[in-house]
Design brief:
With about 130 residues, the protein is mostly beta strands. It has helices at about 30-35, 105-110, and strands spanning about 5-10, 15-20, 25-30, 40-45, 50-55, 60, 70-75, 80-85, 90-95, 115. It has a 7-stranded mixed β-sheet with strand order 6-7-8-9-4-3-10, with no helix packed on it. A 3-stranded antiparallel β-sheet has the order 1-2-5, with no helix packed on it.
Length: about 130
């Protein structure tokens, strides 16, 4: 069931809200940035995603094709969400870091399905051979 969640960085400078349905699944990827950040994502509804405060505290890091804006707080360094445009996954997207959601219960985290993606090998639609480290 979709509902509005609230998320933030560690210091609280960046705050957002997003409509999500965690039961539809979350994702973990082995691409270089997701692996190093241990980024645990859920796609947000673009129409309802909103930065509530701290837009001016966000720093933008892009690499490779520059298709994803890996935004992080300039004060605490936490990546609360990423924005981008990737045709292969449906175009424009916002991926929130599930670990940065402030109003998720332990039960919701534990029951949210996780889909693993092999981004390291550009094999996004399939899980990597080994995924338990993600």
């Amino acid at each position: 069931m979709s509902r509005t969640y609230h998320g933030s960085c560690h210091c609280g400078a960046v705050r957002y809200e997003a409509n999500l349905d965690l039961s539809n699944g979350t994702g973990r990827c082995n691409c270089s940035i997701c692996r190093k950040l241990r980024f645990w994502s859920a796609r947000a509804d673009l129409k309802t995603f909103q930065v509530v405060s701290g837009e001016d505290a966000l720093v933008d890091y892009t690499f490779g094709t520059d298709s994803t804006h890996n935004l992080f707080c300039r004060h605490c360094g936490v990546h609360s969400f990423h924005r981008g445009y990737v045709e292969q996954i449906g175009g424009e997207f916002v991926a929130v870091n599930v670990a940065c959601l402030d109003d998720v219960s332990d039960e919701e985290w534990s029951t949210a399905p996780v889909r693993y993606s092999d981004g390291r090998d550009n094999n996004w639609w399939n899980a990597p051979a080994i995924a338990n480290y993600l």
